[in-house]
Amino acid sequence: MCLLIRLVIKKLDRNWQACLCLALPSQPGWRGGGAGLAEHLWAGSSNRTAAHLQDMEKARPLWDNPLQFVFACISYAVGLGNVWRFPYLCQMYGGGGFLIPYVIMLIVEGMPLLYLELAVGQRMRKGSIGAWKIISPYLCGVGVASVVVSFFLSMYYNVINAWAFWYLFHSFQNPLPWATCPLNSNRTGYEEECEKTSSTQYFWYRQTLNISPSLETSGNVQWEQALCLTLAWLVVYLCILRGTASTGKVVYVTASLPYCVLIIYLIRGLTLHGAVNGLIYMFTPKLEQLSNPKTWISAATQIFFSLGLGFGSLIAFASYNDPSNNCERHAIIVSLINSTTSIFASIVTFSIYGFKATFNYESCINKVILLLMNTFDLEEGSLTADNLSEMKDYLMAAHPQEYAQLLPQLKNCSLEAELDTAVQGTGLAFIVYSEAIKNMEVSQLYSVLYFAMLLMLGIGSMLGNIAAILTPLTDSKAITSRFSKEVISGFVCFINCIIGLIFTMEAGNYWFDIFNDYAATLSLLLIVLVETIAVCYIYGLRRFEKDLHTMIGRKLNWYWKTMWAFASPLLIISLFIFYLTDYILTGTLQYQAWDSTQVTQLLCFKTNKQTHFH
């Protein structure tokens, strides 16, 4: 009987063997391979095993092809952080020199942990809760923690898509509504708040957010933003309605369209006046920053969060793979594309940033020239940007009293100071880019393209976040036996939308910043640390190595084993200690508040108590 079973197994193709291996992950004595499988079939009931396998294959949908899975991972990993976080880090920590710690952290941390999560999902063929429960019943809480963190993220993340919808709808107006300040109620001049700042800041803080002066002043729900948030959640629901069948089609668009827009912006950005100034600023390495520990910590953090590790989304996506899929190759591809996109987006951002800085610098120079010419009645053309410094010295010596009275009105124009202004997050996405777009020719076209790109990046990330929540729920027979997948998906989206209305209130942007800063950082680091320890030391690295050999057909490289067992856990522990120490030493938490009476700057107000998110 045993010999007969061995002969049958040898006739099976490699994919069918892999399916059988994965169907029996928790059986006693299981070690993988043809002989182990034969012994298991001999000891058990072959009819029951075949029935179990057939039920599993029917219940578990698959991606149509491996390319669809890769697009889903790229759409999830390549998000808004690549556009508005990585350029900021380059600006803060050494320009081109920042790429050195960034690439090192990609090799030590990014690729190994991404491969680990994809391999776990593909091997266990469950969402985060089920996958870690198979590894050990005591690790079920790791999956629950991933679902909770993903739920926290989904609550506030989709409001970014709501803002992108808002700006996209307004991009069809001519002129753009943030191009100039609106008239006051008497129509005798511009709004005072807008005159004190800029038209783009006014449109963001007043007309979009209608922001309150402090966190304590909650204000009312802004119905325009609430409608945009509802629309954003409706789009997400339609994308996930039929599971991988619908998500697999959507990711082709959400993953590819941003690259098309970035290429268009790159071509346009390189032709803008002053773009070279931004690129020189970016690629000029400041190697002294390599001795700054925060440079390395920022590089490690950017890699960690950019790939979306710890949320359970990658495990969920990989669980729908064919068991013989080469997840090692896909992990390398996704991580390299993600990092390359960050660098590519930085080139686009700094070309536009250089244009904006040059435009502001030249505008400042022209205002100073006009002020000096009118004050001292100089001949037209006698004062230019080239001789401005010499003429200032001459006028100060020739007319000391008049020049002293005029001095408070003379701005110190500096291109370097404009380029040094570091902006990240929503400030870069909705203020800096809007400022640059309004000064472009055919500004409506570039505005539509830009905010459509933001929307695709945001929706792609949301699909992964929701998959991390829905996959463990739909894996539960207790839930799916009572409710259809469409109902479960709709309920999750509805609850998130209702809670998300908090972020559409007048104080909603303050809550958004608090959630963004404190809702997930420490939790994700702890989750991924436990994941690596669980695979290497609880499930067993040798056992996991055999599983991978069964799946992809070759032995695990020493590089992966070294990173999983030693390097990556030590790096995560270091990051965890740093953030925990920084959180403790910070003391009373602070947040940036918008003061409409002094809108030339963002004023910092202190909260009266510590805010904790678990």
Automatic annotation (TrEMBL):
Q: Does the keyword Metal-binding apply?
A: yes
Gene Ontology cellular component annotations, sorted alphabetically: apical plasma membrane
What is the membrane topology noted in the UniProt record heading this document? Multi-pass membrane protein
Q: Which residue windows are transmembrane per the record?
A: 66-86, 98-116, 137-157, 223-241, 250-276, 296-320, 332-353, 448-470, 491-512, 518-541, 562-581
Compartments annotated for it: namely: Membrane
Q: Which InterPro entries match?
A: Na/ntran_symport (IPR000175), Neutral_aa_SLC6 (IPR002438), SNS_sf (IPR037272)
Principal subcellular localisation of the protein: membrane
Q: Name one GO molecular function term.
A: proline:sodium symporter activity
Which SUPFAM superfamilies does the record match to this protein? SNF-like (SSF161070)
Is NADP included in the keywords of this UniProt record? Answer: no
GO biological process, alphabetically ordered: glycine import across plasma membrane; L-proline import across plasma membrane
Where on this chain does Na(+) bind? A77, V78, N82, S306, N338, L457, S461
Q: Which domain of life is it from?
A: Eukaryota
Name the family: Belongs to the sodium:neurotransmitter symporter (SNF) (TC 2.A.22) family.
What is the recorded name of this protein? Transporter
Specify the species: Meleagris gallopavo (Wild turkey)
